[in-house]
Amino acid sequence: MQVKSQTGKDRRSSGERAEALAAAYLERQGLRILERNYRVRGGEIDLICDDHGCLVFVEVRLRTSSRFGGAAASITTTKQRRLILAARHYLSGRREQPCRFDAVLLSGLTDNDIEWIRNAFDAF
Predict the structure, then answer these.
(1) pTM as predicted
(2) Domains of the chain, start order
(3) Nearest to 86 by CA among 123, 54, 111
(4) Residues of the chain with pLDDT under 70
(5) What pairs with residue 50 in β-bridges?
(6) Are 30 and 51 in contact (CB under 8 A)?
(7) How far is it, in rounded angstroms, from Cα 43 to Cα 78?
(8) Sign of the CA dihedral running 39, 45, 46, 50
(9) Exposed/middle/buried for 91, CB within 10 Å: 0-12, 13-18, 19+?
(10) CA-CA distances (angstroms) from residue 55 to 13, 71, 94?
(11) Per-residue pLDDT reduced to its tens digit, 15-51
């Protein structure tokens, strides 16, 4: 059996569905979505949420195969630096408040495929 690789359009569509699923999941957990796909030069944050006064920067990762380490392994140090850069930009000029970096890892596109990691990494 021959396996076809996903095209760029298919990956984008899967990524958008994964982000929508993650956002809906987080809302059911009591978080409020403030921003989606916040982009600055050099970085992007998939979701920015409010968790009862704590600002949460969320990276959403979909990996249907664990062949290369799965979704968690794909959040490299370089990716973390880009998230931190975007978060610093978002925070500039805003009032000071607690914040954290979370990850929502998906192994598929159903609620049963979601793993939410609070405080997935630190900015410092």
Answers:
(1) 0.84
(2) 10-121 (3.40.1350.10)
(3) 123
(4) 1-12, 64-74, 124
(5) 32, 55
(6) yes
(7) 10
(8) negative
(9) middle
(10) 27, 23, 11
(11) 899 999 999 999 999 999 999 999 999 999 999 999 9
Query: Which amino acid type is present at position 39?
Result: R
Q: Phi and psi dihedrals of 45, rounded to 5?
A: -120, 125
Please give the backbone phi and psi of residue 101, each rounded to the nearest 5 degrees, phi first: -115, 120
Tokens of 61: 């990762």
Q: Residue type for 124, please?
A: F
- The encoded tokens of residue 83 equal 């998230």
38-42: Cβ within 8 A, 24+ apart: 38/86, 38/90, 39/86, 40/85, 40/86, 40/89, 40/90, 42/82, 42/85, 42/86
Q: Using alpha carbons, select from 36, 121, 54, 49 the residue that is nearest to residue 84.
A: 121
